[in-house]
Specification:
single chain, mainly alpha
Length: 226
C-alpha cells in the first residue's frame, strides 16, 4: 500500500512536470488569463494527492469500494479542468469569463465530492447498523452448531441441527422490543450447553422444546414490530 502511494505521487508529479514543460514551451504571450488558467490547472493536479492518499489509506478490503467514487470524481475534475485550462489559454477569452468558468468547475467538484462523502458515510452507517442488528441470530446459530462437539448421542446432534436451522431461518434483524425474547433464548441456550457439557444430553429434551417455542415467539413478535 505504501508503494502504491509513492507510485501515484510520483505519477502525479511527473504529469504535472510534463504539463508545465508543454505549457511554457508552447504558450505565447503569458497574460493574466494564462496565469489564472495555469493556476487552476496546477491546483487540480495537486488536489489528486490528498484525495488518493485517503483512498490508499489502509482499510478493510470490504471498505475499498467506498473510496472508488472519490477516485473517479477527482480524475474527472482534473480532466475537465485540464481541457478547460488549455482551451482558455489558446482562445484568448475574456478574463472574467475564464475565471467564472474555472470557478464553476472547481465549485462543482467540491460540491460533488462533499455530497459523495456524505453518501459514503450514510451507506457505511447503514451497513454497520445492519451488521449489528443481525449479530444475535448469527452468533446464536454458530454457538448451537459448536455444541455438536459435546452432544454425545446422535439423537442430541440431530436435535441441535434442527434447532440451528430454526435459528438460521428466523428473521435475522433484531429490534429493541425483542430484547426480552432474545435474552430468554440466550439463557436457555446457555442452560442447554451446561446440560450437554455435564453429559446430560438425554435430559435436555425440554430445553430444546422451550428454545423452539421462544424462537417462534420471537419471529411472531418480529413481524409485529416491522
Amino acid at each position: 500500500m505504501k508503494n502504491n502511494k509513492l507510485l501515484f505521487a510520483a505519477a502525479v508529479l511527473i504529469a504535472l512536470a510534463l504539463y508545465n514543460a508543454l505549457v511554457f514551451i508552447l504558450a505565447g504571450e503569458k497574460t493574466n488569463v494564462f496565469w489564472f488558467a495555469y493556476g487552476f490547472t496546477t491546483a487540480a493536479f495537486l488536489t489528486q494527492l490528498p484525495i488518493f492518499l485517503i483512498v490508499f489509506k489502509p482499510k478493510p478490503e470490504k471498505e475499498i469500494i467506498y473510496s472508488t467514487p472519490f477516485t473517479s470524481i477527482s480524475l474527472f475534475y482534473l480532466t475537465v479542468q485540464l481541457i478547460a485550462g488549455v482551451a482558455i489559454m489558446l482562445s484568448g477569452i475574456n478574463l472574467r469569463i475564464s475565471l467564472a468558468l474555472q470557478i464553476v468547475i472547481l465549485a462543482l467538484f467540491l460540491i460533488i465530492i462533499t455530497l459523495t462523502f456524505i453518501a459514503r458515510n450514510a451507506i457505511k452507517n447503514t451497513a454497520q447498523n445492519t451488521a449489528d442488528s443481525t449479530i444475535f441470530i448469527k452468533s446464536t446459530e454458530q454457538y448451537i452448531i459448536s455444541l455438536n462437539s459435546i452432544a454425545g448421542s446422535s439423537d442430541v446432534k440431530e436435535k441441535l441441527l434442527v434447532l440451528a436451522e430454526k435459528i438460521r431461518f428466523s428473521d435475522p434483524v433484531s429490534h429493541p422490543l425483542l430484547a426480552d425474547e432474545e435474552r430468554r433464548i440466550s439463557e436457555r441456550v446457555g442452560m442447554l450447553a451446561e446440560q450437554l457439557s455435564s453429559g446430560n444430553g438425554g435430559e435436555a429434551s425440554g430445553l430444546f422444546d422451550e428454545i423452539g417455542i421462544l424462537i417462534a415467539e420471537r419471529n411472531r413478535k418480529c413481524k409485529m414490530v416491522k
